[in-house]
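As a warm-up, study this chain.
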Amino acid sequence: MIELKRLKLINWHNFENVTFDCARLTYMIGVNAVGKTTILDAIRYCLTTNRNFNALGNKKSGRTLQGSVHAKQRGENAYRRPGHTVAYIGAEFSDSVKRTTFVIAVRVESEGPMQELHPGDQTWYISEDGCTLEQLPFIDPRTGAPSAKEDFKPETGRLSYTRSPSEARDRICRALGIGRASSPLGKKFNEVFQMGTSMDEIPNFREFLYQYILPQPELDLEALQGDRLELENLHAVLAEAQTRADALNEIVNFGREAAEKQTQALVNRGAALLARSAADGGEQAVWQERLDAGRRQLEQLNARYADAKNAEAEARRAYLSAHSAASASGEGRALDALSEELARKKTALDKAGRDASRSEAAAGNVQSLLQSLQRSGFAVEKSLWPASLTAETLPQLQSALTGLEKPLEEVCFRAELAGPLLHVPGNTLLTPALLAKLLASEAGGGRAVGSRRFYAVINQVDTDERTALARQTAELLKKQYGVPCVLTHFEEGERA
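Now compare it with the structure written out below.
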């Protein structure tokens, strides 16, 4: 059942913002001018879209939709809200079948009591299930005035709307479980609802029921005669049905007896199965005895195996004893000496193989290292590469590599200034590229030179490795910075 639970009125006649509890409301009683008719007008207009507030009851009252919105008073052209006004009517319903609530609402916007309403000035809303009056923003919290059309929507859920009264009636009837407004029940709802809320008083309640609620009674003798014949036929059908019921009861009794016999048969079968189970138990005992005999045979076999194992150990001890006796003789000692020599040579051969493998691996690693150094700007003589690596050339290669691996902070004067100048840390290896940049810099080798031409002099170029590095540095100075370079060194006699 769908029941009207609460009614909310915003700017409806003398009601500014009021919520009424309508649960199980059948009628309203009160003195004149307290608002009974105003409330009924709001319910009728919200649910039927009917603006004719003067039907039947008091046709001379002059109640209009604009009069309710602008709060017409008793005086002529007297209104509490004469200017632009927005009114809301909200009806909250409870569906006992779905156990949920929904809201049907209407919004009216009028520019003045004498202004005709436009089609877009009336909007009907129907919420989704689960919505209540509190979830709809009838009042704008920022202004305290009725919400604008675009702001009237719940925080969650959907709110369908229409500005067409006919479409609104159709949607409202479907929401109330009546069907379409054009259906017989929908037409009856809109007609009777209008009648039932328009009566000021009911002088004859029976007449009111037949005139406004129930259909008019009509006496049809032919129909009555047909109903009598139909009743007689029904009695005959009932008698036949009773006969069939008696026959069915007899069948049920037979079925009950059959079920009892079937139950007894099942009991007998169970007893037979129990006896069979006892016989199977005797057979199981026979098999258990056979299993025990097999286990005893297995134990005997295990004992025989243990004896055989002891005999094998005794034979091994005899063999070792015989071998020791043979070793004590001359032939045995010679054989042992040859065996030891063979073992030593095999050990030496294995060691030589491992040394050869490590040498090959070391040569490969050194070659990869030299290639990486050359790509990084270091010069290493080809004569020092692993292809000609010998015991004599190895110290020379080590010396060259040691010279290349010196960091900037060890070989550069004022390394604390050179590092920031080159934008590298102090532990960076000094390469020809870094040395060329340092020599050509106005803060380094070119300091205080200005526009004058200067030469870079690289001293101590007295080894092949230093010569290669110096030549590479000189080439970078000339190519990248346009600075000529001179390579020099002192002879042994000039070092005094």
